[in-house]
Write a structure and sequence with these properties.
The chain is mainly alpha-helical and 171 residues long. The protein is 58% helix and 5% strand. The protein contains seven helices and two strands. A hairpin with a 2-residue loop joins β1 and β2. α2 runs parallel beside α7 and α3 runs antiparallel to α7. The longest helix has 23 residues.
Length: 171
């Protein structure tokens, strides 16, 4: 099944290459679960204050970054489902900064953010478990660009990896 979910160049906007490249040669399905534990490990033993301090003026706090990851995964899960089901309309883009501003992530307890992440990942796995190869390959238009259902999965995995690298290196 993992070969089925690996997108090829041209199945997504080149903007997403940095995220898709994180998933090359990896067990995408296994990472849906493994990244839950990874996030828990990264956040373990952090002080409450740590979650509210951006690494630089104008950047997100760790809570906002985690919330952004959750929002983005929900949006890409919707895109994945829509494309797998043959959506013919254009799926819109979104402004990540506006979403973070409107979400009030700094007011949400870390435990609840982790629960949201876990539930989102379990829901994603449940959603795709019965997708056929054809479902994963289906393409449509997202934010004016071609995208396949399987590219959405690779982007979810790579986007998470990108932001965990940011947490490890900058916070």
């Amino acid at each position: 099944m993992n070969d089925t979910v690996k997108p090829k160049y041209g199945e997504y906007d080149p903007f997403y290459e940095k995220y898709v490249s994180y998933s090359h040669g990896k067990d995408i399905i296994g990472l849906i679960y493994a990244q839950i534990d990874e996030l828990e490990d990264i956040l373990a033993n952090k002080s409450d204050d740590w979650f509210l301090i951006p690494y630089q003026e104008g950047k997100w706090t760790p809570k906002e970054l985690i919330g952004h990851v959750i929002d983005t995964e929900r949006i890409f899960a919707f895109r994945c489902l829509s494309l797998a089901r043959g959506e013919r309309g254009t799926i819109p883009g979104f402004d990540e900064n506006d979403y973070v501003k409107m979400a009030h992530f700094n007011d949400i307890p870390v435990k609840e953010l982790m629960e949201d992440f876990r539930v989102s990942r379990l829901s994603l796995r449940s959603m795709i478990r019965h997708f056929s190869e054809r479902d994963f390959m289906r393409q449509g238009t997202v934010n004016g660009n071609v995208m396949s259902s399987r590219a959405c999965l690779a982007i979810i995995i790579g986007h998470f990896n990108h932001h965990m690298d940011v947490i490890k290196e900058r916070y």
